[in-house]
Inverse folding.
């Protein structure tokens, strides 16, 4: 008998109550099958109210009561100081203590990242965790990081992110040699700021579990030009939010267009099946799950406004990371990268360039 | 009789020949009416071949011959050194010498910016020019800058961009008190890097020809949350290219969806009128024209791959800036901003904060 997969759920995070988290676990259980167990952290009475109605889930679950909740507008520093017995903190503690394999929360991103960083710490060889997510593109799904954990990143950190992303593409998405691009404002060597140019120099000279493609521009992301897009958390956060916003704007306009006349309404009705397939392909709920990569423990953030289906996607993302042994693979690969002579000399050369 | 509006056209820039530039001028002439004159810079035989077929345009045009062309992959530094007699440089020189009111080119952006900066210089009170453009949003068109001229920008430069954008929204778009947002990765005061926080402090404390709205995030751009979005050239360039890429991706998927079955095809046929109106609303050719704001002369960059209609939009953008006396208004407003005691103290406080 294999060891069960245990997922700690912060039942109180997000814009909703534990109802959504319990329903999400139920959907995830159906997908993941036997061998998965859930720990619900939060107000036991609220959780039980929904959990008791689902016998299969109940049999696979444990409830750990706490009254304390980190609110969605809590500052990360306050959450760290006062959040010791919060549902979020207890769920992360379970991963740290080896009582759970992964934690999923829809709570406050800043508090979750700060707490996960403090409690779980970074993997050896990783200086900072990154937020990564998967996106649909013309050429299939790609992964992008950092999406907001680090406002600025030096070349060495961008290189670590490249390894984090490439290992994800390889072990979770099954791409044997993932291509990695650095997000920049032009493809020529002279473009961009010092950090991105120095990172390009390192990635061009080292061996890592992917192939360095070169610089990519904003429009290369939805084209799916590379399997992994690496950037700092400021640029990545703006990029992903612009993508979401534009997607919503066009969908909105399309709806308006189809409502604008009787003929258009009839047209929409006839094209309904095709439009529905298209909508499914772009469904943000399917792509829900901000992975906190680089930590010594699996932690996934669900969007706070998601419904049960969206939250269950985040649970599946966490389960995939655990089942593919993502963290152990990263630790191996990053050690190999750091042992390369070419890594040291490229980092040293880049630092010389930066300070010049 | 009013003074004619004279527009210098780099007839050799872009992925096409002078044919497109001549056709574009013809379209622009029809829009702008009498009182506009064009100068075509480039190979006279090529230009005349197309120009001679259009009597109305011919009567409003002058051709200045040069064999020299700056190629689309020329490095800006090389273009500056060797481009003295190029069509791009001669067209910019005409604005500098007062022989033309504005220059429009579809040539190499880096070379155009470097040359325009060197030849025209910045307006008094402006340290760096910015590339600005207009975008469609849910709440009408907005303007965003910088889209790539400056990889990094300090708080004072971001403040100047806010003034450049606000004056544009007021005098060209006719918004009496434009709202200005700083692009960031969260709306709270503590979010982002030093430069954007220091710029927020300055904009909150000064009087300028707009109203400071606060931080905006990536998805606020297509929502049209503010009239003017201010950011550094790295982030702005990524943001606009992501928006273009996502828009293309969705349009592409929509086409595929409508082709996927006979019913869907019939649906598309019925909704044709509505979809066409939607397409028109998002037509990138209408929004073509990267304005180089902050220079002592009007310079507009057309996208290199545009057809005549797209290039004519860039000419109309240039004409609008001239006819609304944009540069004189900026010079007045920036002087007023810089004369404020609150501007000095906010800049000084921000610099103290940055170096701490």
């Amino acid at each position: 008998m294999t060891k069960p997969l245990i997922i700690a759920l912060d039942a109180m995070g997000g814009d909703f109550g534990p109802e959504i988290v319990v329903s999400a676990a139920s959907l995830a259980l159906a997908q993941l099958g036997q061998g998965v167990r859930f720990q619900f952290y939060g107000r036991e009475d609220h959780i039980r109210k929904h959990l008791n109605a689902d016998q299969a889930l109940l049999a696979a679950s444990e409830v750990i009561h706490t009254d304390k909740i980190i609110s969605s507008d809590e500052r990360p520093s306050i959450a760290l100081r006062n959040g010791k017995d919060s549902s979020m903190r207890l769920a992360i503690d379970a991963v740290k203590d080896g009582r759970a394999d992964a934690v999923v929360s829809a709570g406050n991103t800043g508090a979750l990242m700060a707490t996960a960083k403090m409690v779980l710490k970074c993997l050896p060889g990783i200086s900072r965790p990154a937020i990564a997510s998967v996106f649909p593109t013309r050429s299939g799904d790609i992964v992008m990081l950092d999406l907001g954990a680090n406002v600025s990143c030096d070349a060495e950190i961008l290189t670590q992110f490249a390894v984090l992303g490439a290992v994800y593409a390889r072990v979770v998405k099954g791409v044997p040699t993932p291509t990695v691009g650095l997000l920049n404002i032009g493809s020529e060597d002279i473009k961009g700021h010092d950090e991105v140019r120095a990172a390009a120099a390192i990635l061009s000279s080292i061996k890592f579990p992917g192939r360095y493609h070169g610089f990519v521009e904003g429009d290369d992301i939805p084209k799916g030009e590379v399997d992994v897009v690496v950037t700092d958390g400021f640029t990545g956060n703006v990029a992903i939010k612009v993508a979401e916003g534009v997607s919503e704007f066009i969908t909105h306009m399309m709806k308006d267009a189809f409502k604008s006349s009787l003929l258009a309404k009839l047209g929409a009705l006839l094209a309904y099946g095709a439009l529905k397939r298209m909508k499914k392909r772009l469904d943000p709920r399917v792509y829900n799950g901000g992975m906190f990569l680089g930590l010594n423990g699996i932690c996934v953030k669900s969007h706070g406004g998601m419904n049960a289906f969206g939250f269950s996607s985040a649970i599946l993302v966490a389960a995939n990371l655990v089942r593919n042994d993502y963290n152990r693979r990263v630790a191996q690969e990053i050690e190999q990268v750091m042992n390369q002579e070419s890594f040291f000399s490229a980092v040293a050369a880049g630092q010389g360039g930066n300070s010049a």
